[in-house]
């Protein structure tokens, strides 16, 4: 059984029957194939039977032990329950005793409170009587005129003396003067001694402040709190705090440092530190800052608007920054309103008419910048004029695109200056910044719009629009020879200026008006001025393109000869293309490059497409003026090939397609009569009108031959 018990409980893991049987079989000799032994089922059965018997014996023993433990547990449970009942009874008895004790304590406490009230009722009149006796004693000394008590003669007991005089003063003020007692007490009710003691206390406070004795200052301030002169004590403290505090040039930094130092100290001295600190700040704003601001602004208010505005912006900014620092301190409930009122009191007289000063300065400054620029160019600005005949000319020019009036020679001057533009934008930017800081929030969008209107007047109308008008007037007629075309330079500079103008609009104006009705008004004004200028730019570009085509016509008329395409000696043609073609292509390439340098974005493609179409029409019409021999037709094809090569520089598909078609048409000048129909039905010519094809075939010198006419019909 001992062996079975040891085998049964050999593992720490939970009991598993299958594993238990396996272990038993493994340890039994002949129970498996271990060590080469033959399997012996009888021996294994015998071992199992013996083991089962041992387990049964062990089970009986364990069962008896369990029953014994259960009996013992039941016995102990009964004993424990009995003990708990006894403890409950004891607890009830203890609780009863506790209630009795609590009632007894409450009774005693009631008696003690009652006794204390009786004692207090007896002691309070006694104390009052003692105090009254002392006051009567001090009163007699005042009547005799001799103050002998130590409390009046000892300077260290000034606090007790102040308390006594304060009480006697209040008593004397309540007595009518016409009574005998009131007449006798008049010396106490008069301000003489009371005022003298106040002065002594304030003097003591002042001396303690100079010595830096915080505890003594706190003690004297507590005594003065009940006197009328307490506010004077605060004034003395504020005055002495500022002595030597404003020695540097930066009054705002000095004020911030002073308030920081006082904020740490005032709570240790006064019972109402937030009131004292607020009074100090009010004194600094109303005396130091207001005087400093007045000195700085009045000096330039009427003589120098630029310096006045700069000083006003700087002083207001520094004042508001100081106010932000002071917001960290405890100044009472509504410190934001308190500080705002102080700032408003300083600057109200300057902010009321700020925008008028700003607009006046901006107007004069902008006019001076423009005039200085035109003077540097020795240019007398001509009047563009409005109304009447000028408006009629403008409408006619927009509809016909014809120059009305004589052309003006600008000598290549665009009358646009980036330096002028930068100066105007910089002045306006500073005006927007001042407007943002100095304008009342309700007036900010309106004031910003006025500044924007000034920018539009001087930058867009007086400078850009004037330059466009002058540039338009300087564009020569399309039949002028050797004309210098400077309008594209005007376009280039105007485009750059538009970008700068738009950037300032978005960066500096939009934040000021984004949430107001003025936004739509500004956007409309900007749109109108840009559309107005775009009309003039388009008009100038169109007339410039006409001039370019006119220049090409002059080159072709001067350089192209009739013998170029009908040479006398067909067998002795040595050139690859004509001189007129070379010069025209050279001129066109220069103009294409100039257009690319003068514009950006889709405008480049739009203008180049228009120039390319007009260039193609010119060459097409030019070729229609000549008759072509076989060799002349080959030379024309070479010219058109060169024109097509030039057209590739445009990088416009339509223009290249037009010249491809023109090149295919020129093949009709040299193709054999038998192949004409085949060529005309080719891919590039199949969709063209038959009259166009016929017009090119008619240019051949052999068109009159019956054979050619028969083949083309």
Automatic annotation (TrEMBL):
Residues 160-712 form the Exocyst complex component Sec10-like alpha-helical bundle domain. Pfam families: Sec10_HB, Sec10_N. The keyword Coiled coil applies. Residues 41-149 form the Exocyst complex component Sec10 N-terminal domain. It comes from the Eukaryota. Residues 52-90 form a coiled coil. The keyword Ribonucleoprotein does not apply. Keywords: Coiled coil, Exocytosis, Transport. Transmembrane segments: none annotated. GO terms for cellular component: exocyst. GO terms for biological process: exocytosis; Golgi to plasma membrane transport. Belongs to the SEC10 family. This is Exocyst complex component 5. It comes from Chaetorhynchus papuensis.
């Amino acid at each position: 059984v001992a062996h079975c018990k040891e085998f049964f409980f050999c593992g720490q893991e939970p009991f598993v029957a299958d594993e238990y049987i396996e272990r038993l079989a493994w340890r039994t000799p002949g129970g498996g194939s271990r060590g080469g032994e033959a399997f012996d089922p009888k021996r294994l059965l015998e071992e199992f039977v013996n083991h089962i018997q041992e387990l049964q014996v062990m089970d009986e023993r364990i069962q008896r032990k369990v029953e014994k433990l259960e009996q013992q547990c039941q016995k102990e449970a009964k004993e424990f329950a009995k003990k708990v009942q006894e403890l409950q009874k004891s607890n009830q008895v203890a609780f009863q005793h506790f209630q009795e004790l609590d009632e007894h304590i409450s009774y005693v406490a009631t008696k003690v409170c009652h006794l204390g009230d009786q004692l207090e009722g007896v002691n309070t009149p006694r104390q009052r009587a003692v105090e009254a006796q002392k006051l009567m004693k001090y009163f007699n000394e005042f009547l005799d005129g001799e103050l002998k008590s130590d409390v009046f003669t000892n300077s260290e007991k000034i606090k007790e003396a102040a308390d006594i005089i304060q009480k006697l003063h209040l008593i004397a003020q309540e007595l009518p003067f016409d009574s005998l007692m009131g007449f006798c007490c008049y010396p106490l009710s008069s301000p003489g001694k009371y005022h003298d003691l106040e002065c002594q206390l304030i003097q003591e406070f002042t001396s303690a402040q100079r010595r830096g004795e915080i505890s003594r200052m706190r003690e004297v301030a507590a005594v003065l709190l009940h006197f009328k002169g307490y506010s004077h004590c605060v004034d003395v403290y504020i005055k002495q705090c500022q002595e030597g505090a404003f020695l540097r040039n930066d009054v705002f930094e000095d004020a911030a440092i002073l308030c920081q130092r006082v904020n740490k100290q005032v709570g240790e001295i006064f019972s109402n530190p937030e009131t004292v600190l607020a009074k100090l700040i009010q004194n600094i704003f109303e005396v130091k800052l207001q005087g400093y601001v007045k000195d700085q602004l009045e000096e330039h208010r009427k003589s120098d608007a630029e310096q006045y505005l700069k000083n006003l912006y700087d002083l207001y900014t520094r004042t508001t920054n100081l106010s932000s620092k002071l917001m960290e301190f405890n100044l009472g409930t509504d410190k934001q309103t308190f500080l705002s009122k102080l700032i408003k009191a300083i600057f109200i007289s300057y902010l009321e008419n700020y925008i008028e000063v700003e607009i006046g300065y901006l107007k004069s400054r902008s006019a001076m910048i423009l005039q200085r620029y035109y003077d540097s160019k020795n240019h007398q600005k001509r009047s563009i004029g409005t109304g009447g005949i000028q408006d009629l000319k403008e409408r006619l020019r927009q509809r016909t695109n014809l120059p009305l009036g004589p052309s003006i020679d600008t000598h290549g001057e665009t009358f646009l200056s980036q330096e002028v533009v930068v100066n105007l934008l910089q002045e306006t930017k500073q005006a927007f910044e001042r407007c943002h800081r100095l304008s009342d929030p309700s007036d900010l969008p309106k004031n910003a719009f006025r500044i924007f209107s000034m920018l539009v007047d001087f930058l867009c109308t007086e400078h850009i629009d004037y330059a466009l008008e002058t540039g338009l007037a300087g564009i020569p007629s399309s039949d002028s020879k050797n004309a210098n075309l400077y309008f594209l330079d005007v376009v280039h500079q105007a485009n750059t200026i538009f970008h700068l103008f738009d950037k300032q609009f978005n960066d500096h104006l939009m934040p000021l008006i984004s949430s107001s009705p003025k936004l739509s008004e500004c956007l409309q004004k900007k749109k109108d001025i840009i559309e107005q200028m775009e009309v003039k730019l388009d008009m100038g570009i169109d007339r410039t393109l006409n001039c370019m085509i006119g220049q090409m016509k002059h080159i072709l008329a001067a350089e192209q000869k009739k013998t170029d395409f009908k040479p006398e000696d067909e067998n002795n043609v040595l050139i690859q293309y004509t001189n007129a073609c070379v010069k025209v292509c050279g001129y066109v390439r220069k103009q294409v490059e100039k257009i690319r340098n003068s514009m950006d974005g889709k405008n480049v493609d739009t203008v180049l497409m228009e120039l390319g179409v007009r260039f193609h029409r010119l060459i097409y019409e030019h070729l229609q003026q000549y008759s072509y021999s076989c060799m002349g037709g080959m030379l024309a094809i070479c010219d058109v090939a060169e024109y097509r090569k030039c057209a590739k520089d445009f990088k416009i598909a339509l223009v290249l397609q037009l010249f491809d078609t023109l090149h295919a048409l020129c093949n009709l000048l040299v193709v054999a009569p038998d192949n004409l129909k085949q060529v005309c039905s080719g891919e590039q010519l199949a969709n063209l009108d038959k009259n166009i094809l016929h017009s090119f075939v008619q240019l051949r010198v052999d068109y009159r031959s019956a054979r050619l006419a028969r083949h083309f019909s």
